[in-house]
Structure formats: C-alpha cells, structure tokens
Write a sequence for this structure.
C-alpha cells in the first residue's frame, strides 16, 4: 500500500517558550547541585530515581496523560520541549523515560482499567521504571518470529523463554513483553503474539547483565521460567499485538532523543573552540552541523504535531529516526575531524578528547536500538510503494 509522506509544517507555539524557560531553570539548579554533568551526563549514572521524582513533582512525566491517572493533560508539543531540554544537557532520565514515552501510552490505550489505576500513577510519581521486552536471541528485526511463550492457566498466563538486549531490566519494576500465545496462521504470519505487563520481581525471572563496550551496564538478558502474570496484565487482544505496534513505534522513533544523544560533543567542542577564537574553517563546519540539526528538529517537531493531531505518522517517524541516528552517530567523528583542523592536535584538550572518545564508543548503537536503519528503510520503501 502506498502512503504519501507528509511533514506538516509546524513551529513550536510561543506558549511553549515559557515552559522551556521553566525547564531550563530547573535543569540549571540540578546541574549546580551536582546531580549530573551536562558535558557527559550519560557516561555517569543516567538512572537516577530521586531526579525522576523531582521531575515528576513538576508534572513532567506523563504530561499528556489524563489527570485521573496522574497526568497533566498537556500537549505533545509541551512534552517535546521538556524532552528536548533534558536531552540537550544529557539529564539522567533513564528511570522514567521509557515509561513516559511508550509504556504508559500503550497501557493507556490497551490496558484494563484496573491495570491503569495500579500502574500509571506510579509512573507519573517517578517511582516506576519500565523495560521493553521485544527482542529475543533469534528474533530482533523480525519481531514476529518471537518464540517466548505465554500459556493460559487459571486466572492468568505462564511465561517461558528468553528476551535479550533489555535496557534497564535490572533496575525496572515492570516490562511490557511480547509473547507467543498461538502459532502464526498461513494468511497472517504476524498473528499469535500478545503483550503483557510483567512484574519483574515475579518468581521465575532471572536477569543476566550484558556489558556494553563503553563499560556500562545498560542492558540484559531476561530469562522467564514459568512466570505467572494475572489476566488483567494482558494488553489488548490475545494474538493481536501486531495491531497495536504501529502507534507505539511512532512515539518511539521520532523524538529529539533520536538525534540529540551525542549533542554534548558539539557543545563541548564549541565551548573549547571559543577559547581559542573561532577560525573560518571551524565556523563553516559548525554552521553545517547546526543547519543539519535544525532540519532534523523541524522534522521531529512536525511529527510531534501530527501525533498531537491524532495522526499516526509511522513513515515520517521512521525517516526522522533514520536521518537523526545517522547524524548523531557521525557527529563525534565529524567533531574530531573539525577539532584536528583547528589548532588542536589531535584536539590538544584532554577533556574534549575524553568526551569524543566516549561518544565514539556509544555511537554504533544508535542505528540499531529501536529498530535498525536498514529495517526502517524497508518500511519507508514499502510506504512509498517501492516494494
Ligand atoms: C543499545 C541497545 C538497546 C536496546 N534495547 C532494547 C530493549 O530495551 N528492548 C528490546 O526488546 N530490544 C532492545 N534492543 C534490541 C534492538 O531492538 C535489536 O538489536 C534490533 O531490533 C536488531 O535486532 P538484532 O540485534 O536481532 O539484529 P538482526 O535482526 O539479526 O539484524 C542483523 C542485521 O541484519 C539487518 N537486517 C535484518 N533484517 C533485515 C531486513 N528485513 N532488511 C534489511 N536488513 C535487515 C539488520 O539491519 C542488521 O544490520 C536494543 C539494542 C541496542 C543496541
């Protein structure tokens, strides 16, 4: 099926500026108090429950959700501003970010009323962290090959199997997991999967760490051995998880976190270059990077506006993630090259070198997590009617 790609032109409305100033003041106070280092925050402890609770007190977690579940009923554009400001200074949002971005919205849309009452206020208070349990050892890009199984029992389901690359599972209270509840049909190979909210403290769950090449422990292997989940933790229809995936992916793939992860390298370089006086070559190089960033931002704001308008801009979100992650992945190497062109050899600044080194180690993951860019390009091509 062919879909037109449409980026609705949109600027953030002036009312969001007041919120931006409020967020900046909050973050400046946190930085002064030593909560995190904005130059390289994610290398430190990006999971900070106390910080998340302070963010929650401002009403900035679940800010688009209904008030009855602890939300603030604000717009996607307000949420955009908060996310952007947090990312620009690498604030430690890991404890609440996934729940805010996608787990909460999925529960709001597909969860039972008892599940919403039980879980959503904990998220908006900053007390509850969520992990995403989609990938398995033999099912990554092809999610519909998932083999971890849920078997119906009295009052609920029993889970068996293994999930992998599960970010924050060792710190999270819950996971939204994708489990096989029936075999695929001949007509529909996507049939037969169901999503559940799994309490990660349940008996039968083993969480094994996987260390990244940065040396950080961000993700894990999660093994399920006859784990019980009650019926009211089921999300949406049995066997019908594929129908709920598209909206979730539009949320997951288009936000400013998809191009700002290494932004700290650019600001660190500009700060360092300013001390030496900026020559034409540096100015041209920085100008080029900022112009690219500006374009990505316009596209991402446009997707936020379309989500606010109730659309499901899946193709546009895929384009933002593809272009954005390639940009943030290349940024550390580009900044290193620019730094070498200036008076620094290679950068002549140990702090800047360390920052670039860390970002270079982080960079490969950006085009894999949340769906690889090759797979996104397949989705875009299909949307354009090219395959
Ligand atoms: C830092 C990080 C955090 C992550 N966190 C989570 C998480 O919290 N929860 C979770 O469930 N998963 C998580 N993942 C897993 C991630 O979603 C998968 O790694 C990703 O979807 C790719 O799956 P795979 O690793 O099995 O690779 P494969 O699917 O085996 O792909 C291998 C290669 O083949 C290419 N390829 C595969 N299929 C196609 C195709 N149809 N067309 C073209 N090329 C193709 C891919 O692009 C890739 O280059 C995380 C990954 C990373 C790196």
């Amino acid at each position: 099926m062919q879909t037109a790609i449409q980026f609705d032109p949109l600027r953030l409305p002036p009312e969001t500026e007041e919120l931006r100033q409020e967020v900046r003041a909050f973050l400046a106070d946190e930085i002064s108090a030593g909560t995190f280092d904005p130059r390289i925050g994610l290398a430190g402890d990006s999971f900070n429950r106390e910080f998340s609770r302070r963010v929650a007190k401002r009403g900035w977690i679940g800010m688009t959700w209904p008030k009855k579940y602890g939300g603030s009923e604000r717009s996607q554009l307000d949420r955009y501003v908060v996310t952007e400001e947090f990312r620009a200074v690498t604030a430690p949002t890991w404890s609440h970010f996934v729940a805010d971005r996608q787990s909460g919205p999925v529960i709001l849309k597909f969860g039972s009323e008892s599940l919403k009452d039980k879980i959503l206020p904990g998220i908006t208070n900053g007390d509850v962290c969520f992990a995403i349990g989609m990938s398995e050892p033999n099912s990554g890009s092809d999610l519909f090959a998932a083999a971890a199984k849920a078997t119906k029992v009295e009052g609920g389901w029993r889970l068996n199997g293994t999930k992998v690359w599960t970010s924050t599972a060792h710190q999270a209270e819950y996971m939204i997991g994708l489990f096989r509840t029936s075999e695929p049909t001949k007509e529909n190979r996507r049939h037969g999967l169901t999503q559940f909210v799994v309490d990660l403290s349940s008996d039968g769950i083993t969480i094994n760490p996987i260390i990244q090449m940065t040396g950080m422990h961000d993700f894990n292997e999660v093994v399920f051995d006859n784990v019980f989940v009650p019926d009211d933790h089921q999300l949406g229809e049995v066997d019908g998880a594929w129908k709920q995936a598209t909206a979730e992916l539009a949320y997951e793939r288009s936000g400013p976190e998809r191009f700002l992860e290494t932004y700290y390298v650019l600001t660190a370089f500009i700060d360092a270059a300013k001390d030496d006086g900026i020559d034409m070559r540096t100015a041209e190089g920085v100008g080029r990077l900022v112009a690219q960033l500006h374009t990505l931002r316009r596209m991402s704001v446009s997707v936020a506006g379309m989500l606010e308008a109730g659309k499901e801009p899946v193709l546009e979100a895929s384009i933002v993630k593809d272009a954005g992650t390639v940009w943030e992945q290349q940024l550390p190497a580009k900044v290193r090259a620019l730094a070498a062109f200036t008076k620094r050899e290679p950068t002549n600044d140990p702090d800047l070198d360390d920052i670039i080194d860390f970002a270079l180690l982080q960079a490969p993951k950006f085009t894999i997590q949340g769906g690889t860019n090759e797979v996104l390009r397949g989705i875009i091509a299909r949307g354009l009617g090219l395959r």
Notes: The chain has a mean pLDDT of 92. The first strand starts at residue 130 and ends at 133. Residues 166 and 220 are 5 Å apart (CA to CA).
